[in-house]
Every structure is written in C-alpha cells, then in structure tokens.
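Task: complex structure prediction.
Instruction: return structure tokens for all chains below.
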Amino acid sequence: AAALCPCRAVLARRGGALRALCGSVRGLAAGPEAHFGFQNVTEAERREKIYQVFENVAKKYDVMNDSMTLGIHRVWKDILVHKMNPSPGTLLLDVAGGTGDIAFRFINYVRSIRERQLQRKLKHHQNLSWQEIFESYQADKSKSLGDSQVVVCDINKEMLKVGKQKAQHLGYSEGLSWVLGDAEELPFDDDKFDVYTIAFGIRNVTRIDLALQEAYRVLKPGGRFLCLEFSHVSNPLLSRLYDLYSFQVIPVLGEVIAGDWKSYQYLVESIRRFPPQEELKAMIEDAGFFKVDYQNLNSGIVAIHSGFKL
Amino acid sequence: LRCQLSPPQRALRTSAVLRRVSEEQKEPLASSSQQQFDSHPTDPRPEQEPQGPRPSYTGQGGQESEDYESEEQLQHRILTAALEFVPEHGWTAEAIAEGAKTLGLSVAAAGMFHSDGSELVLHFVSQCNTKLSELLEQEQKQVQLGEAEKKPTEQFLRDAVEARLRMLIPYIEKWPQALSILLLPHNIPASLNLLTSMIDDIWHYAGDQSTDFNWYTRRAVLTGVYNTTELVMMQDSSPDFEDTWRFLENRVADAVNMGNTANQVQSTGEAVVQGLMGAAVTVSN
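Output:
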C-alpha cells in the first residue's frame, strides 16, 4: 500500500495525461489490482494472503466444511463425481484438491464400476475350464482400479500434508499421487489428462483465466473440465437467508471451531466476489472449451460447470 | 483485466484440436495453424455437410468456419464409431467411451452424452432409417429407368420391412436392451417420431396416393406389422431368421386382405342399409 502513495500524489497533481504512465508505473511497482474478500489488494498480496488462510485452516478444513454446510458438501462432491461418470482407465487431475475429497470419491467410484465389469465378465465365462477362470481372477485382481489414476495438485503444502495423512488413514494407496503446483502454471505436459476437476478451488485462484487456459492445455482432446464452486443464488428469499447465514453464522463457527474468524470472513466474502454462473460459463468458453454448461445445486448456492476440449 | 483472446485466434486453437482428430483418420498433414485458413477443396470426409457457418449457439467465433466441424458432427462421428462396441458393451456410455477412444479422443468425451446410452440407440435407428430410404430411392430409380419391374404392394412391403429388420442382425443380442431404452419416457417422442417417419417413407415409395382416412389406417397397420415382426425376430433362433420372414409374409398378407375385407364389409354394409331402407319404405306404404 505504501508503494501506491507516491503515484497517487502525482496523479492528483498532473491529471489525465500522466495517469496512463503512472498506471503502468504503479503496475510495475506494486502489481495489478485484485481483491481479497471485500478488500482491494494487489495480486501478489492476494496470493500471499490466501496461502496463509489455507495454511491456517488446513487441519480443521474438513471439520469446518461439515459444520458450515451441515454435511451437504459431501452430497455436492458425490454429485460431481457421478456427473463425471468416470470409466476405468480414466486419468484425473484434481486441482486445488488439498485434502483429497474428490480423489477418494473418484477411486471409490472407479472401483465399484470395475467390480461390476468383472461380475459381468464372469457371467459370460460359462464355458471356460477351471484353469482359465483361475487365471482370469489373478489377472483382474491386480487391476482393481483398471489403470485409473488420480493426481491431486495443490499450491499449499499444509493442505497436501493433511490430504496425505487422510489417505493413509483411510487406506488409499493405489492410483493416487500428490503434487505441489500452481493452478495458473501447472507442472504437467500438454494433453495428459482425461478429466480436470477443481472443487471449491477456483475461487481462490487469482488469475482465473490463466487457470482455465492451463486446464485446457493439460487436457487430452475430448477431455472434460469440471468445476464445482459456490455461485449466485437468484431466488431473492433464499438469497436473503443465505446471506444471513453466511455473514452471521459462518465466521462465528470459524472462531469457535477453528479459532480463526478472519479466514472464514474471507471465505464468505470471496464467495460474493466470485463471478456468477453465466459469467464463469463465458470465461470457460473463452479458454476454448466447447459444450460448456452448468448445473445449479441447491438453487445456485453451488454450481457445477462442465466443458469439453474438442 | 481479463486476458481475452480475440475470437478468430481462439477458434484457430480449438479447431486445431478438431482438425487433429480428423487428421488421425487421414494421412497426417503438416499441421501448422496457418493451414487452417487455406480451404481444403478435396476434403473427403463423408460426414461433412454442405459448408455453412458453424452454428454459433454458444456464441463462439464463427466467421472463418467452413473448414471446421461442428460439435454435432463430431458427436455423430463418435456415435458411429461407438456402434462397433455395442455387441460387447451394450447400448451404454461405455460403448460411447470406446468409440471416442478410436477417434483419438479421451474417454471423458462420453460425458457429452446421456449416461443411459439413449443417444446411441437413437443415432443408430436414425442411421438405419436413412439407409432404408436410400435403398428404396435406388429401387424406385431402377423401376423408372425400366431396369426392374415394379413390385406388387404386398411384395414391396415385405421386402422393405425385411431389409430394415436385417439391419438389426449385427446387434440382435443387445436389441432388447435398445428397445427398452427407446421406451423410456424421455425418449418416446424421439423414437415415435423416427418410427412414424420410417413407416411414412415405406408407404411413400410403395406408391401410396391416398389422401383420405386410408392414410392413417395404412400407417397404423404397417406399424403394427413392423413392431410385431421385430418382437418375433428377438425370439427367433432359426437359420437366417426364416421363421421371422415367414411370419412377416403372413402378416403382410393379412394386412392387404384386411384392406379388401374392409371394402367388402363396406359394400355389404351399404347393401344392407339399402335393403333396410327399401323395407322401411315398403312398410310405410
């Protein structure tokens, strides 16, 4: 903020002609404008602040999610994976996937599809000899996931740490990897993944357009982009109740459960600052995706956007 | 300040993807994006419809669009490719995913379609109907050119229905599943539409000139014949489905006779009414 002051003084004295120059100087000195909740900050500051927010909440992230949404976030994430309908052999990139919720659901889903496939195959094995059936059991057992894999990418070390601990605790080991990375600049090659998901993460990205471009880059042709995020409620009555709940209840819960009022204040404000459904859809289309569509959950409290790289 | 690529540039990049997909099917062209602007005059892709601007229903840059495939065309290609996997996977999203894979797309592309395989079945039925129309068109041309005899109606109907049902033979194992999908409430409008237009087509080429009530009865009758024969075919295990064709022969004969019987009934009815009128007049006198 200090760096901004001299420029502002100059502006006031010299007026329009120098505004452009100062604008660019200001840009060089302190970074382009961004927002952190309802505050206006520079982009660099915003990244720093968001990193700190998640560093602070990492350990209590899941507990807070449950208490804030009364457990409904689990249903939202289930719906996301159902919509994805992954077949065995799918390569998933879950960005901002911190504590692994989407990744674990993906693994469960693929496993159950695979089991059903195996059962169906067995039904056809009417005329095989015992030896052949035994061999097919052996072969299939080793591929309980059917070559599906999920890569969880997050910018925050603390969140990844919590995620890895959870995975160990719940017994997920196969087909799962954890990568530290920035959604605006992913450490992956082009055309690698079948599906890219970002659940409740894109709101925290500073340059959403860059994240979308990166998503486009790392997806295979025909690949799918899925974004689960808080969005805008159009129903006025529900909107009032939702606002009331968000601003009065959630920060209090944050203080009581996680001992951190400010982070949850940020959370609620950032939801309000995030573009509404149609605008996000336009941004996704700008990045090059086709068949972009969105599905409102709970009348717009949350929305799933989907697009294809064609 | 959102970094927005101008529409032509973006369409360029995305079309590079679509083009790449199709290039894998032909010999690989040196794909530099510049080439997209040179029109490919001899583009042998069969699915390409008369060049027109890409439908801009998503509001994406559509000026330089003649070379680009639309999303719908791509979807059709995926579904056609998926048919190959139906005997193994059934009419399901899995078959569609396999089809997408053969086109060089990710399996996630199957997410563009309904997860119950509806579009795959409807696409197939539509394709079969188109093939039937072409067949009948060709036959008609041959008759017009004098290369073939005009078949009597009964024979014509039998042959047309048989030709259409034979298209199901490669998928006959999974056809019951397809029928159940076609009967799902949200599919009924589309499937009914396809059925009625197919029946219409057959009657059209059979030379049906009627403009009266017969138009409806004819269609209803032939629809009944088609549907029952289809169901018989599901259960048929005779060599080359000869039982089915015999059943078809009988049904078509019945249908034609019914037409005659109807006429007879009508004239008998008229005669009876006249008799009664005469009796009434006599009695009143």
